[in-house]
Amino acid sequence: MDKRILVVEDEPSLAEVVSLYLKRAGFQVQTASDGRAAMSILEKQIPDFVIMDLMLPGIDGIAITRWLRDRSDVPIIMVTARREEVDRIAGLEMGADDYVVKPFSPQELVSRVRAVMRRLGREQPEAESDRALSFDSISIDPRTRLVTIKESPIELTVKEFDMLYLLARHPKQVFTRDQLLERVWGGAEYIDPGTVTVHVRRLREKIESDPSKPNHLLTVWGVGYKFEP
C-alpha cells in the first residue's frame, strides 16, 4: 500500500507542485491549507508522513508538530521561508526529522522524504539488543524502552532513547556527529548536523542533575560525544 503523506502548506501553487511531485513518486497525497484544516485531518487519522509549513494561518506548524509528537512518531519535514537558525532549532526541538528552507527543489523534497523513510526502515538495530544497562543512578532497558533516574521513569523520544542507548552501550567511546547521524538516524544525507546538538541538549536536561555541568553525557571538543559511566 502506498504511503500516505499530508502536505500542510498555505501557498496554493507550492502545495500543488509538491503534491504533483509526490504523486509522481508513488505517494498518496492529502493537502491542508491552514493549521485548523490540518488538525481536522490529523484528529481523524495520522498519515504515514507529514510535510509541515512552519508559518500557517490559525495554528502554526510548531504547535501542530508538538501535538503530533505527543501522540505519534510519524516522520515530519518542516518547511519555512525563514532562514534564522532559531527557527530551524525550534523545529528540531519539537521533533521534526528534517528541515527545508524555501525556495527549494520539489525533487529534492521528494528525495528527502525517501531518505527519511529509508532511515526509519533501518534505524532499529542498535536499539534492538535486549541487554539492559545500569550506570550509577541511570538504568536503560531496551525491551521496554524505559529509562529511570534513581528509579524514577524519564520520558524520552524515540531518537533520544536510541542515542542514549547507543552511547551507553559503548561507555567512554567517542562518537562524532556523523557517526551518530549514521547509527541513530541511519545516515547523514540531508540531515542537519544541528540535530545531534539539539538531542544531546535535550538528553542532558532529562538525565543530568546539572545539564550545564554534565556527568554522563560529555562533549569531547572538536570530536564528538561520549557516555561516561
Polypeptide structure, described:
- The protein is an alpha/beta fold and 229 residues long.
- Helices cover 42% and strands 21% of the residues.
- The protein has 9 helices and 12 strands.
- The strands form 3 sheets. It has a 5-stranded parallel sheet with strand order 2-1-3-4-5, with helices on both faces. The chain has a 4-stranded antiparallel sheet with strand order 6-7-8-9, with helices on one face. A 3-stranded antiparallel sheet has the order 10-12-11.
- Helix 1 (12-24) crosses helix 5 (106-122) and helix 7 crosses helix 9.
Give the SSE layout:
Elements: E1 4-8, H1 12-24, E2 28-32, H2 35-44, E3 49-53, H3 61-69, E4 76-80, H4 85-93, E5 98-101, H5 106-122, H6 125-128, E6 133-135, E7 138-141, E8 146-149, E9 152-154, H7 158-169, E10 175-176, H8 177-184, H9 194-207, E11 217-220, E12 224-227
Parallel strand pairs: 1-2, 1-3, 3-4, 4-5
Antiparallel strand pairs: 6-7, 7-8, 8-9, 10-12, 11-12
Helix pairs in contact: 1-5, 7-9
Could you write a compact summary of the structure shown?
With 229 residues, this protein is an alpha/beta fold.
Identify the CATH architecture of the largest domain.
3-Layer(aba) Sandwich
Shape: elongated
Q: How would a textbook summarize the main sheet?
A: 5 strands, parallel
Domain count, please report it.
2
Evaluate the radius of gyration. 18 Å
DSSP summary: helix tally: 9
What share of residues is helical?
Answer: 40-55%
The CATH superfamily name of the largest domain is Response regulator
CATH class of the largest domain: Alpha Beta
| Spans of at least 5 consecutive residues with low confidence | 123-128
Q: Classify the beta-strand content into a percent band.
A: 15-25%
H and E order = EHEHEHEHEHHEEEEHEHHEE
Mean pLDDT rating: 85
For the secondary structure, the number of strands is 12
C-alpha end-to-end distance: 45 Å
